[in-house]
Amino acid sequence: MNDEISLYQRLRENEETAKKFYEVEKKILSILRFKDLFDALLAEIKGQFNLPYVWLSIIENSEAHHLIESIDDMDPELKASINIIDRSAFFALIGQQTEPILANDGLKPFFKLLPADRHYLVKSMAIAPIMMDGEIVGSLNQGDAAQDRFEPGMDTSLLEQLATKVSLCLSNVAAHEKLKFLAYHDPLTGLLNRRVMETALARETARAGRYNLPLSVVFLDLDYFKKVNDTHGHETGDALLKHLADQLVHQCRGTDIVARFAGDEFVIILPETDADHATALMHRIQEHLAASPLVCGETPIPVVITFGVASTMDPDPPKDDPAALLKKADERLYEKKAARQNKEGRA
């Protein structure tokens, strides 16, 4: 009779545990934002299983690490629950296995998985590797002060199932985030795309008019870009565009907006900046680019740009017309290019 009661209790306990895992899975499967996924995952596991310590170890420079770095509004508590670990250190501990590991003895080597700024009183651990697109990117970890909470030999099938669902969610969220990124950004340079730039320009033009502030727009393109493509190939041409984009972002303020317009054309929106200061900035950028060629093998490829500037302080374009402002900057760019080409033709 006692054996039957004991068996019944174990079945009830297993049923309760399975239900808790199901609740965690149900919570995370519909999430499409990376930050929200981690928030919900850690909070649900802590709550459902009454665990003091739940955290993630993410392999440095993995795709999951890059996605974490892209989160601008990460809660400090969540950030403190994510440990970025060296790849070789992680695999030295876990190996290539995808099955969960339970440990309650000789834990010191596993402390490398713990968040650096947290002090966890851990006497037993459950470590479940997680994957993205078939590659191990880290682990979902649970810890307890009780040594018998996680013991080698315990059934880990439900934890393994949860890790599989987490891995699936990571891949889904990553795909969603990439699509969202591509909707707003140029895939080659990572800059904002033309559509987003036009929306931003309309917003900044309205703001400049509302508060009577200057606003300048720079339209620029790469000189001799076709020659670079013809001489060095399109792969080098793409690298030159990416190099220019990186240098523009580096030289501009955080409040400035840098976008790829099309081909080798770029637009910079400079809030609270008049034409003189915008021109001075572009001259500094030209000097910086002259000193920062793209090195292709052993060949330095010069980065030469021509630009045109238009400002809401100009008498020509209406202050409330962003399209006219952009067109004026474009016209001034091509006036400069035509003048240079005439000069080169006479030389």
Walkthrough of the structure:
The chain has 347 residues and is α+β, with helices and mostly antiparallel strands. The protein has two domains: 2-183, Beta-Lactamase (2-Layer Sandwich); 194-346, Alpha-Beta Plaits. Helix content is 50%, strand content 19%. The protein has eleven helices and eleven strands. The protein has helices spanning 2-28, 34-49, 63-69, 76-79, 87-94, 157-184, 194-211, 225-232, 234-251, 275-290, 322-346; strands spanning 53-59, 82-85, 101-103, 124-132, 135-144, 215-222, 257-262, 265-271, 294-296, 299-301, 305-311. The strands form three sheets. A five-stranded mixed β-sheet has the order 2-1-5-4-3. Strands 7-8-6-11 form a four-stranded antiparallel β-sheet, sandwiched between helices. A hairpin with a 2-residue loop joins strand 9 and strand 10. Helix 1 runs antiparallel to helix 2, helix 1 (2-28) packs parallel to helix 6 (157-184) and helix 8 (225-232) packs across helix 9 (234-251). It is elongated. Residues 1-5 have low confidence and may be disordered.
